[in-house]
Amino acid sequence: MEAENYTVLSQFLLLGLSDNPKLQPVLFGLFLSMYLVTVLGNMLIILAVSSDSHLHTPMYFFLSNLSLTDICFISTTVPKMLMNIQAQSKDISYKECLIQVYFFLTFLGVDNFLLTVMAYDRFVAICHPLNYTVIMNSRLCVLLVLMSWLIMFWVSPIHIVLMKRLTFSTGTKIPHFFCEVAQLLKVASSDTFINIIFLYVSTALLGMIPMTGILFSYSQIVYSLMKMSSIESKYKAFSTCGSHLCVVSLFYGIALGVYLSSAVAHSPQGSTIASVMYTVVTPMLNPFIYSLRNKDVKGALGRLLSRSVSHL
């Protein structure tokens, strides 16, 4: 087929998770439920943190930003998929696809940086407790969050500029439920060498640098805990890291699983299903992990719900 540049026209076809018509209502109900649970759970975290003065600390400031990013992250992909299932359509315009790529990469990267910032916060709290309020002042906290956003606002447009150089055949099918960069590069008709190089370099830098920061922070935390004589002090100090460790393990564990599955899978369907884990499941589980493992968050949520019920 003749290659056509989609900066001028038309649309892609998102193949989604299944072509079976009988499964479409099930997928619609499942993903709608997961989406609503994710938005509600993360909104409750944000409301609890903002309404409770006990949670006006750097740790919960970063947590509320993580919750906001998770809402934006899942809203980039799932609503379009639900609309397509409901309309019995697979279409997504070229412009919508690029917008989806841009925001997906941005929110994924900000999530990554926020987890690193939260690890640094725990490092300062445990290793330098006397200087914690001085080091983690409000100005630094806001600056760290802004830097996370600014980095991704600069990196994501480069992907878009490189994508606009590519050509695609008429009626290009994307074997995914959203416009995922790697899948788009596979179905492009033109040379994608530069795109692939930039994708690997940016992924390596934006993945390895934050992961190194997290590993360094926790190595210092473990070293500080080993020097503590009291078991109770060790448990109390490390318990503040429990929720963050669970989220980090989930985020990087699933991301690694998706990478390995895409590398060894013979069918795109396997990679697509694996992608559901980090695009949908991880943002949904984060508020549960923090609310179930954190007494302060549970207390704030209880007070928030009590106030809401009393006003009814």
From TrEMBL:
Pfam family, one: 7tm_4
GO cellular component: plasma membrane
Annotated transmembrane regions: 26-48, 60-79, 99-120, 140-162, 193-216, 237-260, 272-292
The protein, known as: Olfactory receptor
SUPFAM superfamilies: Family A G protein-coupled receptor-like
Keyword Nucleotide-binding among record annotations: no
Subcellular location: Cell membrane
Family named by the database record: Belongs to the G-protein coupled receptor 1 family.
High-level lineage: Eukaryota, Metazoa, Chordata, Craniata, Vertebrata
Domain named G-protein coupled receptors family 1 profile: residues: 41-290
Species annotation: Sciurus vulgaris
Keywords: Cell membrane, G-protein coupled receptor, Membrane, Olfaction, Receptor, Sensory transduction, Transducer, Transmembrane, Transmembrane helix
Single GO MF annotation: olfactory receptor activity
Main location class: membrane
Membrane protein topology class: Multi-pass membrane protein
